[in-house]
Amino acid sequence: MAVVGASLAGTRAAEALRREGFDGRLTAIGEEVHRPYQRPPLSKQFLAGDWDRSRVDLRVRDLDADVRLGTVAEQLDLQAREVAVRGPDGHERIGFDGLIIATGCQPRSLRGEPDRGGMVGVHTLRTVDDSLALRVALDANPTVGVVGAGFIGSEVASTCRRRGLEVTLIDPLSAPLERALGRRMGDVVGKLHIDHGVRLRTGVSVRGLVGNGHVEGIRLDDGSLVPADLVVLGLGVTPAVKWLEGSAVHLDDGVVCDARCFVEGATNVVAAGDVARWFHPSSGRHLRVEHFDNAGAQAAAAARALLAGKDAQPYDPVLSFWSDQYEVKLQLLGMPELGDSVEVVEGDVSQLRFIAAYGREGRTVAILASNQMSRLHSYRTVVEKRLAFPPKAPA
Amino acid sequence: MKVVVDMNTCESNAVCMGLAPSVFEVQGDGKLHVINANPPEELRDKVEEACRSCPTQAISLAEG
């Protein structure tokens, strides 16, 4: 078996193969030189300087695998059943019977701009090296511009404010996290940022970066200039599938998979994590999920499917996720983006301590909890069974 | 198998609760409680997974 991608999903997949009793040869191929680590702290505790490097490392069971770090997958040959790689020792072809694709994603850059605007002082945030570089740059107390108010951008803004830095958070949508949480809850998050001293510029696009070698500001579409000598681009990610181009693997915003995580266009190949767009039975659509919880769970499911073959089970999870911003912990169950209405069912929004439900056609499709860690899981069944919307508060 | 949670480290992200709800539960105080500190052997895989998956690495397992 070969696993391409040695981050969270790849590692969990390899672990699951061993746990399920696979005792053949196992090769794990990872582009980064680092042993697997966790990404959630990279925009939070590690970026803030609260955690040291060792706490970011992932706990991994003994894999009894040939682990190739610093090794880039360059091509997939489905006829020969080999992955062509380039590592510290040069080019090589690694054969497989079964393959797990877990190459994740890479950050987007500004449209029409070269990588990171071609300027010093412009950062993206995906890897531990990215986070470390950003953390060091923040030590110089820069004025920060964050482009994109998704989860990464919002968390970076929060961490920068906690470090006492001036921050402008910019997004073309009307509110932070609007795509993920909808307008109403996005506005709640927007107020949270404003109350913590962030300059929030929503509903306006970025025209480009201004600077001469080193970034000095961000030019917005309305002509205004946001001064910033450090810019973080939180523009989302694209699946890392370049190595699969030219193979028969079906690519469409990621690696397209069936409900059991089997890759379309190939046999005995599965995919998991940020790169996989699989058919999610409960929602009846293909999904690509970029969250921590899913990466681990899907990797285990994909590995089991690969071993089970035609007896493989569909992977049909209730999605879950969390985000820490300032003193608020947001937790999600289900898929808010499916909802066409949202209602607060418990607590007090003005205190940022509440539970909100998302509904569609009279059914509950998601729950958002804000500083309600103890209550969230009471609603798991509500989401799992899509009970009537708005749901009654469970005991 | 004995489950120990370092409450100074735990942030109640509840990843463990999703994996092993009969062992871990975030209760009304917003804190994680180990509701079964000596889970049966058949839960070992789940509990080990919860231990490895904890984003703050607050969970540890001891034998016995």
Task: Explain briefly what this protein structure is.
Chain A is α/β, with parallel strands linked by helices. In chain A, 21% of the residues lie in helices and 31% in strands.
Task: Give a written overview of the molecule.
The complex is a heterodimer of chains A (395) and B (64). Chain A is α/β, with parallel strands linked by helices and 395 residues long. Chain A is built from eight helices and 26 strands. Chain A folds into three domains: 179 residues, FAD/NAD(P)-binding domain; 127 residues, FAD/NAD(P)-binding domain (3-Layer(bba) Sandwich); 58 residues, FAD/NAD-linked reductase, C-terminal dimerisation domain (Enolase-like, domain 1), CATH 3.30.390.30. In chain A, 50% of the residues are buried. Chain B has one domain: 2-Layer Sandwich (Alpha-Beta Plaits), CATH 3.30.70. In chain B, 23% of the residues lie in helices and 22% in strands. Chain B contains two helices and four strands, in the order E-H-E-E-H-E. Chain B has a two-stranded antiparallel ribbon with strand order 1-4. Chain B has a two-stranded antiparallel sheet with strand order 2-3. The longest helix of chain B is centred in the last third of the chain and has 10 residues. Chain B is globular, with a radius of gyration of 10 Å. At the A-B interface, helix 6, strand 22 and helix 7 of A face helix 1 and helix 2 of B.
Task: Describe this protein with a few key phrases.
heterodimer, A: alpha/beta, FAD/NAD(P)-binding domain, Enolase-like, domain 1, five-stranded parallel sheet, 8 helices, B: 64 residues, alpha+beta, Alpha-Beta Plaits, two-stranded antiparallel ribbon, two-stranded antiparallel sheet, 2 helices, 4 strands
